[in-house]
């Protein structure tokens, strides 16, 4: 049983480390200062207008994908930071396939005109 002691300690301490910061603000907050104006929706200083579930133009989604594509590209390119003789051919070709998929996605968005300004 002594070999499971570190795991038991970890299982007790880890929820405390995550739950204490979540519960701490409730100790210092008060509901006495809430009033309807503070609880109302805020939209750039104006009253909200229209439905929040309205349809958006596809360009909004394409622009968001334009900003998302470089993130995994940079993240998954880190394995290429090792010397070339340390990467086996499978790893090298899998990275090439990954970059090819991202390039196809970028070309698709470019063709659709996601980066065009009106």
From TrEMBL:
Reaction catalyzed: a ubiquinone + NADH + 5 H(+)(in) = a ubiquinol + NAD(+) + 4 H(+)(out)
Function: Core subunit of the mitochondrial membrane respiratory chain NADH dehydrogenase (Complex I) that is believed to belong to the minimal assembly required for catalysis. Complex I functions in the transfer of electrons from NADH to the respiratory chain. The immediate electron acceptor for the enzyme is believed to be ubiquinone. Core subunit of the mitochondrial membrane respiratory chain NADH dehydrogenase (Complex I) which catalyzes electron transfer from NADH through the respiratory chain, using ubiquinone as an electron acceptor. Essential for the catalytic activity of complex I.
EC number, UniProt record: 7.1.1.2
Keywords: Electron transport, Membrane, Mitochondrion, NAD, Respiratory chain, Translocase, Transmembrane, Transmembrane helix, Transport, Ubiquinone
Localization of this protein: Mitochondrion membrane
GO cellular component: mitochondrial membrane; NADH dehydrogenase complex
InterPro entries: NADH_UbQ/plastoQ_OxRdtase_su3, NDAH_ubi_oxred_su3_sf
Protein name: NADH-ubiquinone oxidoreductase chain 3
Highest taxon listed in the record's lineage: Eukaryota
Topology versus the membrane: Multi-pass membrane protein
Membrane-crossing segments per the record: 6-28, 90-108
Organism of provenance: Platycodon grandiflorus
Family according to the record: Belongs to the complex I subunit 3 family.
GO MF annotation terms: NADH dehydrogenase (ubiquinone) activity
